[in-house]
Write a structure and sequence with these properties.
Pdz3 Domain; elongated
């Protein structure tokens, strides 16, 4: 139990530091460009601790669900000024007017030139992208530590197991039926502990390469050179054509559009490999980050259908998708389970937590780039629209249209906040009643 709590605390601290640095990514360029920053806060709700330094109040709030910096003049005043228009009625108009009023109240007399909305477009973009790119930088550093420092588990060239027969994919047999054909590796005399040196003259360096060669060679007799107790010997192995599960890059079984397990017919010899930790070169870091970004993008694009699956798991008992979205509660639970897993070495538990935090920062990077208010990407989109409008005005010699009235997007922001809140509640509930089984 103590290790579980420790794992949760490590992830909470890691997440808090990631959020704090995200806000630093906004704070530093904002101050550099002369914007008045009234607050730098980690969390939301009641203030637990704060201290004012210069014109900025730095503090921590009670709900650790994010963070923010309060910049002067986030929204430009309406055409009639920053005050409320008495002729406007309705809930959403009130929201827009309140946002303008609140923004105007952050502008002290004499500080009109230090407002966010008066900055050139490129400076606003730099400020708003500073947060997400800080998370990207954190992710790159953590992946470098994980891949180049700890190393990753890879299938080695050493044989860890040899099947005695060929069983179809999905078979639940624990022993070989009398009519099952012999596994090619077993028939050729391959033993546990053999280290495969080459296949048909091609030197092999890892288990994935060996699997690839064997799978594309059904029916071909291959000369497999193995090192057994320091002596090399050649075995003739003929992969059998067999139906096998298709696996993803994460090792999970791929599924068809109908939800069934995906299979393919490939060459099969019946061996498993021993795993070993291998330190990757620095050049492997960016591709790993890129793969994680692609995965998060896929999750966001397919989020509606994934949330349907989460709801079915939460209220109907369906199995959770191990690659699906989780809440902060789910992330903390995963961290606790990893830390308390005493069947693996401590260094492996630490490296897994590092990988989890790295992936979390990738998610923060990508999610904040979604071009919807109140996310950073929404503010960037507003600035870019303004640049396009001003560009066209200049091209066609029209009057400067001025800054984009981003306050008009407040109703959309309101709707997004409601949706994000509902999603958070659903994911949190699912992570409590039907959590993802990370050990499958």
């Amino acid at each position: 139990m103590l290790l579980f709590v420790l794992g949760v605390l490590v992830m909470v601290v890691g997440l808090a530091v990631s959020i704090a640095l995200h806000e630093v990514g906004h704070l530093v360029p904002a101050k550099k460009f002369g914007v008045k920053v009234g607050q730098y806060m980690i969390g939301f709700g009641p203030t637990v601790f704060s201290r004012k330094k210069g014109e900025t109040e730095y503090g921590v709030k009670a709900l650790p669900l994010g963070g923010y910096i309060s910049m002067s003049g986030m929204f430009p005043p309406g055409k009639t000024g920053g005050g409320a228009r008495q002729s406007s009625t309705g809930f959403f108009n009130t929201l827009v007017q309140d946002a303008r009023t609140a923004s105007a109240e952050t502008v002290d007399e004499g500080d009109e030139s230090r407002t966010f909305y008066r900055l050139p477009v490129y400076k606003r973009v730099v400020i708003m992208l500073g947060g997400p790119f800080m998370n990207l930088l954190i992710a790159i550093v953590l992946f470098a530590v994980l891949l180049c420092g700890f190393g990753v588990q890879q299938a080695s060239t050493t044989v860890g197991s040899v099947s005695t027969c060929v069983l179809p994919a999905g078979s639940t047999e624990t022993s070989c039926p009398s009519d099952a054909p012999e596994a090619p590796a077993y028939a050729a005399g391959m033993l546990n502990g053999d280290r495969i040196v080459s296949i048909d003259g091609t030197t092999v360096t890892d288990g994935d390469q060996i699997t690839s060669i064997l799978q594309r060679s059904p029916g071909d007799t291959l000369d497999v050179v193995v090192d057994r107790d320091g002596t090399e010997r050649t075995l003739q192995v003929t992969p059998a054509l067999s139906e096998r599960y298709v696996t993803t890059s994460s090792g999970a079984v791929a599924t068809n559009p109908d939800g069934g397990s995906q299979t393919q017919e490939v060459g099969f010899v019946g061996i498993g490999f021993a795993y070993e930790k291998v330190r990757e070169p620095v050049t492997a870091v960016l591709p790993a980050v890129g793969d994680n970004i692609a995965h998060v993008v896929d999750v966001i694009v397919t989020l509606p259908q994934r949330l349907v699956g989460v709801a079915q798991a939460a209220f109907g008992g369906a199995e959770r998708d191990p690659n699906g979205p989780v809440s902060v509660v789910g992330v903390g639970r995963m961290a606790g389970e990893i830390a308390s897993l005493d069947t693996i070495p401590v260094v492996d538990r630490i490296s897994t937590l590092v990988g989890l935090l790295a992936s979390l920062n990738v998610a923060l990077f990508v999610f904040n780039l979604v071009p919807l208010m109140p996310l950073d990407g929404g503010h960037v989109a507003g600035a870019l629209i303004e640049a396009i409008r001003r560009g066209f005005a200049k091209l066609f010699r029209r009057p400067d249209p001025g800054p984009v009235d981003t306050a008009k997007a407040i109703p959309v922001t309101f709707a997004i906040v409601i949706l994000l809140g509902g999603m958070t509640v659903l994911l949190t509930y699912a992570d409590i009643v039907n959590p993802i089984d990370i050990f499958g």
